[in-house]
Amino acid sequence: MPRGTAYCVLVAKGSGTPATTALTRAGVAFTLHPYAHDQAAPSYGLEAAAALGVAPERVFKTLLVDTDAGLAVGIVPVDRQLDLKAVASALRVKRAVMAEPAVAERSTGYVVGGISPIGQKRRLPTVLDASANTHATVFVSGGRRGLDVELAPEDLARACAAALAPISRTR
Prior knowledge:
Elements: H1 18-26, E1 31-34, H2 44-52, E2 60-67, E3 70-77, E4 80-82, H3 84-91, E5 96-98, H4 101-108, E6 126-129, E7 138-144, E8 147-151, H5 153-159, E9 162-165, E10 168-170
Parallel strand pairs: 3-6, 6-9
Antiparallel strand pairs: 1-8, 2-3, 2-5, 4-10, 7-8
């Protein structure tokens, strides 16, 4: 999707996810990318990158962390790991640990492997890895397994009120 192109996929009433509904309501340009999800895939994010034919550094995963101030969200490329010390620093908290999957699902309203940073049940403090700004567009979960949305990183940051910081590290 070229920069400056006002392209928005309108989802038929009742068929959208909270993420696509939130993006449409906000007037954010995005493109839907459905793909056939394999239940046996060892990594949902790397599966999405391969299925969509996109470099893994452009596909971002949404991870929930538990901090001394409550839950928060970290968004990092699927080929990297969330640096817990870096995300704690970006959130200005003492510590961060990965949230339990059941807690992440309850808090966001999404299932693991389909957690979108957009349209969660309640807005949590969110940090987007600064590497997102090296791409014209990035991909994040559209709110269910087998569905990604492509959008400009600045639109992603705005849609989920995310701060940008270097919060990822190589595996």
